[in-house]
Design brief:
With 143 residues, this protein is of the alpha/beta class. Helices cover 32% and strands 31% of the residues. It has a 6-stranded mixed beta sheet with strand order 1-2-3-4-5-6. Helix 2 links the parallel strand 3 and strand 4.
């Protein structure tokens, strides 16, 4: 148990409990069919009077894969994030930060086993994105 998380499901659960503690997400869907393969989590949130869509991908170890998944999600959301254990922070800084800074569309959140998280890299807010039926359904849920 080198990173403190036994599974991606545990990472996802611990992060979500802390991230949405104040109810910041008006809507959310785990395993959202955003693209082929789906996104681990998509949220509809409000920030400074505007609504935004966020996609999150969770991985314990395969950083290259999670970055590629987040990059694929970025077409459909305002912000695309990878969520990883905090022990991967140095790996991101040493190996992936220049790539993330060049792409600008993938953010990084590092999570400690107790649930505390920090934003390691903030993605650029994208104004233009593709819509699909899954996103429309998520946004309209409850209406």
């Amino acid at each position: 148990m080198r990173n403190g998380f036994l599974s991606e499901k545990e990472l996802k659960t611990v992060f979500w409990e802390n991230y949405n503690r104040t109810g910041r997400a008006h809507r959310h869907q785990f395993e959202c069919p955003l693209r082929e393969g789906g996104a681990d989590l998509v949220t509809v949130e409000q920030f400074q009077g505007n609504y935004q869509l966020n996609a999150f991908e969770f991985k314990l170890a395969d950083i290259k894969k999670v970055i590629l998944q987040a990059e694929a999600n970025a077409e459909y959301v305002n912000k695309s994030w990878i969520v990883i254990p905090s022990d991967k922070e140095n790996l991101i800084n040493d190996k992936w930060m220049s790539y993330l800074q060049e792409k600008k569309v993938i953010g990084v959140i590092c999570v400690e086993p107790g649930g505390r998280y920090k934003i390691l890299f903030q993605p650029r807010f994208q104004q233009v994105m593709k819509f699909n039926q899954s996103l429309v359904n998520l946004m309209m849920k409850g209406y």
